[in-house]
Amino acid sequence: MNAAIRYLAFVSKTPHKLAHFYCQHLGMHELGRSPEGDISVGDGFYNLTVLLHRDDRAEPGFGQIGIAVDDVKELEDRLRRHAPGAELQPDAGGLHFGEYCVKDPNGYPVAISTTNFGMSQANEAKLPAIVHAAVCEPSGESVAAFFSNVFGFAKTSPRMWGSSGRFVSDGQTNLAVLASAGEMRAQGGHITPDHVKQGLNHFGFEVPSAEQLTAQFPPEAGATQRTDRPRPQGYYRAWDPDGNHFDLRSSPGWRAE
């Protein structure tokens, strides 16, 4: 079974502002809008969907990741073998949702699509491109095992695996499973914004030059170099108009790891 992360969802009171920001500053293009006000934009590989906040939806902020698969029956078999009790549930489908949804070991939803979330079959996007996503959850070992055993994601290098975070990859996206603030505090670790927001925490773009791109961001994006990283050169953090945090790294960035 082939599986790849190809979707990220937000909830926002002003989807048009977020969509405009990512199109204007990160080179994404609009894919489509729903009559209800949901907007999807893309980088050629990823569908980034901004859902209009309503009473029946989560509070504004990051929503969920989505994984495209080419064999639902094999996925169901893997769920039975490796994640008993985690069953596929039907979802709305179309451009803004997956056709199914499944919950990870902590109950966070993962969208599932058999149609690449409306994107092409392209192997990768042109830069800027989303190549990193991070979830912040307790019991990271079981979460990383869920993505590895159910979706076939590969464990990255040993130095990217520890109690503060586990990293797996689908071949395109580096997925970080980060420890919660409580776990970091218990082990005496340094707590950053990466360890505060539970669930989908942030994501990252590979860009030709993070220095040049962030210099063109509006001041309110708050772009700063990530000096908390072992190799801070070309590594930046910024915020979109809703206060969602995203990272940028100069090429080859995460893919070099």
Characterise this structure.
The chain folds into two domains: 3-118, 2,3-Dihydroxybiphenyl 1,2-Dioxygenase, domain 1, CATH 3.10.180.10; 129-256, 2,3-Dihydroxybiphenyl 1,2-Dioxygenase, domain 1 (Roll). Helix content is 18%, strand content 35%. The protein contains five helices and 17 strands. The protein is an alpha+beta fold. The strands form two sheets. Strands 9, 10, 11, 12, 13, 14, 15, 16 and 17 form a nine-stranded mixed β-sheet that branches. Strands 2-3-4-1-5-8-7-6 form an eight-stranded mixed β-sheet, covered by helices on one side. The two termini are 24 Å apart. It has helices at 15-26, 72-82, 140-151, 181-186, 210-214; strands spanning 3-12, 29-33, 39-42, 47-52, 61-69, 89-90, 100-103, 109-113, 129-136, 154-155, 161-162, 165-169, 174-178, 199-207, 224-225, 235-239, 245-250.
Low-confidence stretches: none
In CATH, what is the homologous superfamily of the largest domain? 2,3-Dihydroxybiphenyl 1,2-Dioxygenase, domain 1
Mean pLDDT: 93
Q: What is the CATH top level name of the largest domain?
A: Alpha Beta
> Portion of residues in helices?
10-25%
